[in-house]
Amino acid sequence: MSPAATFDDVSARAAVLRSAAAVFYARGIAGVGMVDIRDDSGVSLRRLYGLYPSKRDLVAAWLTARHTTWMAWFEGAIERSRAAGEEPLLAAFDAIAEWAASPGYRGCAFVNSAAETTEIDETHRRIVASHKEGMLEYLGALASAGGYARPDRLGRMIGVLLDGAMAEAAVLSSVEPIAAARDAASLLLAASR
Amino acid sequence: MSPAATFDDVSARAAVLRSAAAVFYARGIAGVGMVDIRDDSGVSLRRLYGLYPSKRDLVAAWLTARHTTWMAWFEGAIERSRAAGEEPLLAAFDAIAEWAASPGYRGCAFVNSAAETTEIDETHRRIVASHKEGMLEYLGALASAGGYARPDRLGRMIGVLLDGAMAEAAVLSSVEPIAAARDAASLLLAASR
DNA sequence: CTATAGTGAGAATGACCATTCTCACTATAG
DNA sequence: CTATAGTGAGAATGGTCATTCTCACTATAG
């Protein structure tokens, strides 16, 4: 109950989430044991279970945090491109392409997690679904801001292209599908003028 | 060495693959034990390991078979629509929509499998990649047969839309993304006339 | 100083699973 | 009939976790 304990909890949580972010994405949820989280974060098992009563809870916290950080990265990359005079809805593909070309790329963490039946429950599925809804909503807002016709539909179409691009890039170990998706997006934007 | 034994092996293999097809897709690879395959197929563990020396081998056989059966289903559905006078590249989305609306839909088996890091090795990844390449090739052939401009690029664009549609439909438990993808495809076809 | 609450290290527990092994049985070759 | 190869049933083995528990230690309240 000392104030020091509270502070420790906060930084221990941060360390655990930092480790979770690294290993859950790289190796999948089933591929990571609580011991791995301990080893990577330096937070003992006892403390770990004090902070997150079960692996499920930790996974939920990771997914929730990932939504925030991924969206921040995505929106940040797009905002930077917009500032450089590029079309935001096309810049989205450039951001994904850069990510997919970086080492360790394994596709969308949310889609991958949803595929792990052993590790994922309804709570997790809800987080995954609202992440995708959040992404689509943001794309719709971009379409709207860009003055396109039927911006909501355009946002959804761009979203499907992005998800397909992320998945195919992972499975084929190539950025080519992202280029194809970008080409398609470009045609769709032209058609929505 | 008796001919009867050979026959048994053939039908035992068939029974095992039939079970594998059902349970691996529904519960994921990690979610299925060899015991589950035995219970579902009626082939004893001993025999099972005689036919497939390891779970990895069985998974590889399942993925290989799945490529064949999935493509046959996909091409069949599209051919039927073509006979009914529909545009094949749009019929693809109708086929996926029907599948996604059926109970037990969980997205693309290949993309899901690739996400299961614990269960998948390089051999499996190659099978997954060539499945996607096969699908894209087929779509390119359809685009070519349809007389569209830049058929290869069009096939890839449609492919990205299909993969995005399959993934989002699974994650959002909705066929709406498939409709959006179909709309997008329709615009792309118009732009490729 | 001394009792106490919290902690790290890591051992113990209980499940689960791939794979192998045992044993009793069957059908067939001879 | 009798030795043999193959089989089913399911137990045994070995490994991997998630989660809990033990024990010794530390710092602090009093």
Structure description:
The structure is a homodimer of 193-residue chains. With 193 residues, chain A is mainly α. Chain A folds into two domains: 1-53, Arc Repressor Mutant, subunit A; 55-191, Tetracycline Repressor, domain 2 (Orthogonal Bundle). Chain A contains nine helices and no strands. Chain A has helices spanning 3-27, 34-41, 45-51, 55-83, 88-101, 109-115, 122-145, 151-172, 176-191. In chain A, helix 4 packs parallel to helix 7 (122-145) and helix 6 runs antiparallel to helix 7. Chain A is elongated, with a radius of gyration of 19 Å. The termini of chain A are far apart. At the A-B interface, helix 6, helix 7, helix 8 and helix 9 of A face helix 6, helix 7, helix 8 and helix 9 of B. Chain A binds a DNA duplex (30 and 30 nucleotides) through helix 3.
Q: In terms of structural class, how would the helical and strand content of chain A be classed?
A: mainly alpha
Termini distance of chain A? 61 Å
Given this structure, which CATH class of the largest domain in chain A is correct?
Mainly Alpha
Number of separate strands of chain A: 0
Can you tell me the CATH topology of the largest domain in chain A? Tetracycline Repressor, domain 2
Name the chain pair whose interface involves the most residues: A-B, 46 and 46 residues
Provide the CATH superfamily of the largest domain in chain A.
Answer: Tetracycline Repressor, domain 2
- Integer-rounded radius of gyration of chain A: 19 Å
- How large is the share of residues in beta strands of chain A? under 5%
Q: Give the count of structural domains of chain A.
A: 2
Low-confidence stretches of chain A: 1-5
Helix segment count of chain A? 9
Main sheet record of chain A: none
Second CATH tier, the architecture of the largest domain in chain A: Orthogonal Bundle
Write down the secondary-structure element order of chain A. HHHHHHHHH
Helix percent band of chain A: over 70%
- Spatial shape of chain A: elongated
Q: In oligomeric terms, what are we looking at?
A: homodimer
Summarize model confidence as the mean pLDDT of chain A.
95
